[in-house]
Design a protein that fits this description.
The protein has about 300 residues and is an alpha+beta fold. Helix content is about 35%, strand content about 25%.
Length: about 300
């Protein structure tokens, strides 16, 4: 009798386990996948500092290693903006384990460029460029002063030239302040560069309203192509789905489709935005999650799994 009860309990447990595993590994339909999708906004700027308390901010570096969007006050910073798709993801296939984690595809080429250049080298190049521009402005100011001195407001085009002269004067004032700051940096050997990133996830709640959550970066892959983010409260929003990576490797990437914010229905992968989810078709208009769309190409689910080990 006891054995019969034991077998009955074991059989019931087995049925529950099989049902649960089947449920967790069941392919996803479009409606479910769209509740997994989110959009990621990145705001980024860089800060150059020295031990004397001098600070200089910029948004990007041009190909000739000059600083774009240069500012010396926080309120004047013009950060770069990047927009891409992303998706909420479970860390373990066996149970809900998202905890506010998102995978997205943001190529980090600019940060690689900044990291490869010595801060002192950036200062020297920028100082030379500003001094060259300042000399050019001084020549323009000399010519504009002569024009304004020999002409009057009754002359055609005088107002336009006067406004342009004011613009040149303001630009010169800005350059002189920038040069003074760069010279202070140049006299100090200990200079460092810090990056400031702000990630925001935008998604639809259960009522269809747009909500936002701030996130921080946990890990990026070795190719600087995909990124693992985590919400500040480490919680997945109520009513939001999370994608699950199956425990086996998907080897056949045939007839793949993507779920992207660009379209309301699945589309060919080449038309999807970076960060979109890639699915392989299964049955009954469902699909199995297989990877993430990049700017060029894709990463499969096995490469995404590596992020979890890096993010621990």
């Amino acid at each position: 009798m006891k054995k019969r009860k034991l077998f009955g309990v074991l059989a019931a447990i087995s049925v529950v386990l099989i049902s649960w595993c089947t449920y967790r590994l069941w392919p996803d339909d479009t409606a479910y996948a769209r509740q997994v999708l989110t959009q990621i906004d990145l705001k980024r700027y860089y800060q150059i500092s020295d031990e004397m308390g001098n600070n200089l901010f910029f948004s990007t570096i041009s190909t000739d290693t000059l600083l774009n969007g240069m500012a010396w006050k926080v309120k004047d910073i013009h950060p770069i903006h990047k927009h891409t798709d992303g998706f909420w993801i479970n860390q373990n296939w066996l149970y809900p384990s998202c905890r506010g984690r998102i995978v997205t595809a943001i190529a980090d080429t600019m940060n690689l460029l900044v990291s490869a250049i010595k801060p002192a080298q950036l200062i020297v190049h920028q100082l030379k460029a500003c001094q060259y521009e300042l000399n050019s402005l001084k020549q323009q100011q000399h010519e504009l002063r002569y024009y304004l001195r020999v002409h009057g407001v009754q002359d055609i085009g005088y107002d336009i030239v006067a406004k342009y002269a004011t613009k040149i004067h303001m630009r010169r004032d800005t350059l002189e302040k920038a040069i003074a700051l760069l010279q202070r940096f140049n006299r100090n050997g200990k200079i460092s560069i810090h990056r400031a990133d702000e990630y925001t996830a935008t998604y639809k709640n259960t009522k269809g309203k747009t909500e936002k959550k701030h996130c921080s970066a946990l890990a990026k892959d070795k190719h600087n192509s995909i990124l693992l983010l985590e919400t500040e409260d480490r919680k997945t929003p109520h009513g939001i789905n999370a994608i699950t990576i199956v425990p086996w490797k998907i080897t056949k990437m045939l007839d793949t489709m993507a779920i992207t914010s660009r379209f309301s229905s699945p589309c060919p992968v080449e038309f999807a935005r970076p960060g979109s989810m890639i699915f392989v078709p299964t049955h009954m208009n469902k699909g199995r999650f297989a990877g993430i769309k990049l700017q060029n190409g894709y990463h499969d689910s096995e490469q995404i799994k590596e992020l979890f080990h890096l993010g621990k």
